[in-house]
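Predicting holo structure, nicotinamide-adenine-dinucleotide bound.
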Amino acid sequence: MKYQEVNNYINGLFVPCNNTRIEVDSPLTGEVISAVPLSTYSDVDMAVQAAKSAFPAWSAMTSKMRSQILYNYRQLIELNVNELAAIIHEENGKTMDEAIAEVRKSIELTEFACSIPQIAVGDVLEVSVGVECRSEYAPLGVVACINPFNFPHMVPHWTVPNALALGNCIVLKPSELTPVTAMKMAEMLKMAGLPDGVFNIVNGAKEVVEAICDHPDIKAVSFVGSTPVAQIVYRRATSNLKRCLALGGAKNHLIVLPDANLELSASDIAASMCGSAGQRCMAASVMIAVGNVNPIIDKLCTETSKYIPGTKMPPIISHQSKENLIHYIDEAEKKGAKLLVDGRKFTNDESANPNGYYLGPTIIDWRESGSKMPDNEVFGPVFEIISAKSVEEAILIQHESPFGNAASAFTQNGAIAKMVAQQASAGMIGINIGVPVPREPFSFGGWNASKFGAGDITGKSSLGFWSQYKKVTSKWAKQEITDWMS
Ligand code: NAD
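Done. Tokens:
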């Protein structure tokens, strides 16, 4: 095995455990690279007890002291970008360039957390003569973060640095498909000076997630993954009276008009649908063609030919996921949709191992099919085209989607772009941009079935999720003038 077996990380140590293990294979080759334990409630409990013991000292530190440790951590990530990216590349399959970009995004997220002492400062006001009200952000206690496979480093950095900066102690549950990266994260946090017990990892699958939702000492749960699981987690955690923010899947619509810039639109859409082999919740999924946009579609088909499986286009996460995608394409064809680009037939470059789970870019045109495009998430390098007679109709179609992560407009007409931005039912809007991820300090989060719970998961919006507001009202001296509030 390329990497040592994954263990849980509890109280500053990797703890060997006797649980059943499942193999972790690399999508690049299909070879087994590690093994991950399927932990149980008692493992989660061990991690929670460690976190509970660490909480009094950690939460008593000033936020500036905590952020000093996060500064150290940020520097360690910077020094180890390539090593981290190599692990992500190996276990997730994304290209080295994409993996490096992922780690760079984690650095940006950590920098935001370092700035929390400047942002989460509370207010103070003399509310009556001699009476002062002060507000402050107090930590929650032990919190948990549950993660998907597609960004094994960045998605944990959506939550961990902010939750730590605000004084919480954490139990992290990585995806069982990509658990190796998180071990490095634990090592680096310790090297940065994080006290033992403040950050813990419990590996596994469904049973660990259920234990997190049920454990009485976990105060808040963040989840990122598919919509069906997000719903399960949100229901179970909140029914146990926990705070929960659960981000789900997506099917992102691009409303494309004939006046859109031909070159830029085609290359941007191709990059959005093919990057990480389409396994991004912000990937371009559906074009709603308003009027005749065939020149853009033709150019898009040409652009996708640059994404040759191998160096430029990574594999799908698993053999099963690849089979599911092929099944979706087969069914679309049976329903009369036309395959403008057929990823089932691809030629890879010499860097692609024949045992890797590769699939080529695919463009499915439903416009003449007489069938309705399914509204479920596809999550692969599969882009679908439908049509609308007007922008108003395109917006109505977007509204029918159960999801609401991202929506984009491709046009040179500012009024139409503004109309789409105002009326699309999605949390993140792109204007002439295929992956409209808001950068810090703006927050990340979708609408509808792409997110359950209040607020967003990153940026300023996340501060409220990882903390509770405390209000202190004080009066020290007897005052001549008093009123009813004194
Ligand atoms: P997933 O839902 O299969 O798994 C996510 C986590 O849930 C994993 O840790 C997994 O172990 C756990 N899990 C899986 N099945 C479970 C069950 N039945 N009960 C309890 N826990 C369970 O998601 P994935 O395949 O790892 O990731 C891809 C999905 O994540 C896509 O749907 C993608 O759109 C979504 N995603 C969304 C965002 C966002 O910001 N909205 C970001 C990244 C990924």
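The pocket of nicotinamide-adenine-dinucleotide is lined by residues 146-150, 155, 173, 175-176, 205-206, 209, 224-226, 229, 232, 247-250, 281, 377, 379, 405, 446, 450 (CB under 6 Å).
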